[in-house]
Amino acid sequence: MADAMWPHPVPPISSEERDARLARLRANMDESGIKGVLLGSTESLRYFTGLVWKPSERLLGALITDERLVYIAPRFERSKVETLPILPGDIATWEEHENPYALVRDLLGSRGRLALDEQLPLFAYHGFVAALGVDRLADAGLLVRPLRARKSPAEIALMARAKAITIEVHRRAHAMLKPGIRSSEVVAFIDTQHRALGAPGGSNFCIASFGDATSLPHGADGDPALQRGDLILVDTGCRLDGYHSDITRTYMLDEPTREIERIWTIQKEAQEAAFAAAHLGATCESVDRAARSVIEAHGLGPDYRLPGLPHRTGHGIGLEIHEVPNLVRGDETELATGMCFSNEPMIVVPGQFGVRLEDHFYMTDSGARWFTQPQASLIDPFSDVAPLTE
User: Which of residues 112, 129, 148 is at a domain's end?
Assistant: First the structure.
């Protein structure tokens, strides 16, 4: 299955799967009375067509109707679009002096509503308002989000492989840490290891925090050096065929203080409680509530107060590292087969330290299943992690 161009034991997303996605989208369009969906240069464009394009001030995307897939592109970009591995479709182009929103209007016709990609920039929305009128526009997110939220076996396999790579990178990073090493050195090493294991873009992101910087959920500025007795927090991930990994480990090279060990144990208990609450039909907010109940039972919080959990328990993940639905109060989405979430009820002790253990799970017909096994030990975090093999 693996080859020099794709060195992984799981396949990328096939054209057949993208065709099936378009069929489901068209069914949603028909039910909602929508004549066309306009996708911008977003992850939804990649999801349905395979076209990956960096967004800019020029409209480039795709118009999907009940019968046609039409790529919309600046005229000078047509030759590049034609060379990319995308679903077959027509290509409609516009010159620099022309109005791309009027082009979409003319392709759509004089009747029917157009649903716009929810991640289109505001200037594009205004362009479509001027071309079609606000009454003919709708939110494509209502059609697209339910489809993207429930991952297929192929999507889950890609994320499982990406996460297996990242946990191996974590294991290797832990082995090279020593007092005096700088955060930037850890970040560079992790990027190199992601690439060595077949993630073509290296690390999609990386946070390596030491000591009191671990109390900042997304890391501190500067380039500190690791000191003896520091708590270490490393959060990183990569992408395979667009699908994300995102794993955090918090550990020490030295003996922890009693307070660090206490908070680490509470955070692990909260993570376990969230996982136990994730069953089919449960709401996203109930999973968040389960984690917070553990934290509050230990005298932390309540709510978002510190010391405690300052943010949601988890987020959806897929082609975007943060996707809806979220494990957070107010999200009443019911968990369903194929949904994928992070589980990371971080505990922050302001100005001192923070603990985040982040793993991800996906919903099956029989309930939640971990992508990666949670961290078992504060001092020996990877003793139960076997080296990655093909």
Answer: 148
* CB burial readout 191-200, b (16+ within 10 A) else e: bebbeebbbe
Measure CA 84 to chain center: 24
155-165 pLDDT tens trace: 999 999 999 99
Boundaries of domain holding 349: 150-370
* CATH number of the domain enclosing 187: 3.90.230.10
- In 257-334, where do the E strands start and end? 314-316, 323-327
So what's the pLDDT on residue 3? 57
Q: What is the DSSP string of 171-214?
A: HHHHHH--TT-BHHHHHHHHHHHHHHTT-TT--SEEEEEEGGGG
Same domain, yes or no, for 141 and 155? no
The pLDDT score that the predictor gives to residue 1 is 38
Q: What is the β-pairing status of strands 90-94 and 69-74?
A: parallel
- φ, ψ of residue 301 to 5 degrees: the values are 75, -140
Residue 2 has pLDDT above 50, yes or no: no
Q: Please give the full DSSP string across 320-353, using - where no structure is assigned.
A: SSSEEEEESTT--PBP-TT-EEEE---EEETTTE
Burial of 367 (0-12, 13-18, 19+ CB in 10 A): middle
Instruction: Look at the pTM and tell me if it is higher than 0.85.
Output: yes
Contacts of 20 (CB under 8 A, 6+ apart): none
Which of 112, 127, 148 represents a domain boundary (last residue)? 148
Q: What is the pLDDT of residues 325-356, one digit of tens each?
A: 999 999 999 999 999 999 999 999 999 999 99
Query: Does 345 map to a domain?
Result: yes
